[in-house]
Amino acid sequence: QQQVKQSPQSLIVQKGGISIINCAYENTAFDYFPWYQQFPGKGPALLIAIRPDVSEKKEGRFTISFNKSAKQFSLHIMDSQPGDSATYFCAASLPLGDKIIFGKGTRLHILP
Amino acid sequence: KAGVTQTPRYLIKTRGQQVTLSCSPISGHRSVSWYQQTPGQGLQFLFEYFSETQRNKGNFPGRFSGRQFSNSRSEMNVSTLELGDSALYLCASSLFTGKDEQFFGPGTRLTVL
Questions:
Q1: Partner A contacted by B92 (CB < 8 A)
Q2: Which of A43, A93, A99 lies nearest to residue B104, judging by beta carbons?
Q3: CA distance B92 to B84
Q4: What is the pLDDT of residue A97?
Q5: B54 vs B24, B31, B34, B57, B74, CA distance in Å?
Q6: Residue A89: CA atoms inside 13 Å, Cβ hemisphere, count?
Q7: Which of A74, B4, B25, B93 could be B105's S-S partner, Cβ–Cβ 3.0 to 4.6 Å?
Q8: Nearest CA to CA, how far is B16 from chain A (Å)?
Q9: Between B43, B56, B98, which is nearest A89 by CB?
Q10: Considering only CB atoms, which chain A residues are within 8 Å of B55?
Q11: E-assigned strands of B61-100?
């Protein structure tokens, strides 16, 4: 119930294409869903986050789509660039929780 | 503003030894969380400290422990190291809770031989 399942494990996309990473959860009490981006040799960094009262949030080329009824959320990267090549983690946390539960990550590679 | 710093960046130990890792959070941040990152398991939560008190703990054996000092700096200790403890250990700081935006350090790469 506390898990966040992320897919795919790895993804290869052509430059200019759309990268899509999906996550699913079971616990309907989760109320905060961040996405983190991690480059090799660095710690993860917050990319974008959403709360379940909205169905979509966009920041530049990055969009989170949230489907509360399906208990799924996804990250879309439009016009993917080689610099987007990184590992992406979805995550979720509870209203009164003090920790964030991470998915297992997606390694994204954008072909030049 | 300086980011989260972790020392050392790399460590090589042998089975049975113990190790202490250090984390200095961003100035003003009072919550420090620790994670273990491995290729197979991803990011796994170890524990979170706030005002020198452990506020949350993940599912790790008692060989993993931590503490936080009055200046919010934190250390984690792993005793009786096992081969499976080889991982990247990440520290994250946030203002008040582990749920606020977390700022991660670069991690300490621990290799157990």
A1: yes
A2: A43
A3: 22
A4: 62
A5: 16, 10, 11, 7, 11
A6: 22
A7: B4
A8: 27
A9: B43
A10: 98
A11: 64-68, 74-78, 87-94
- Asked if A79 and A22 touch (Cβ cutoff 8 Å), the reply is no
Judging by DSSP bridges, how do beta strands A10-14 and A106-111 pair with one another? parallel
Provide the chain A residues 30-69 that lie in CB contact (below 8 A) with chain B.
32, 34, 36, 41-46, 49
Nearest alpha-carbon partner for A21 in A3, A35, A31, A39 = A35
Q: Which residue of A has its CA nearest to B102?
A: A46
A44 neighbors A89 (Cβ within 8 angstroms): yes
Q: Look up tokens 């990550």; give the residue.
A: A105
Quickly state the pLDDT bin for A100 (edges 50, 70, 90).
confident
Taking residues A53-82, what's their average pLDDT? 96
The DSSP code for B6 is E
Interatomic CA distance for residues B70 and B82, integer angstroms: 31
Nearest C-alpha of chain B: how many angstroms from A14?
24
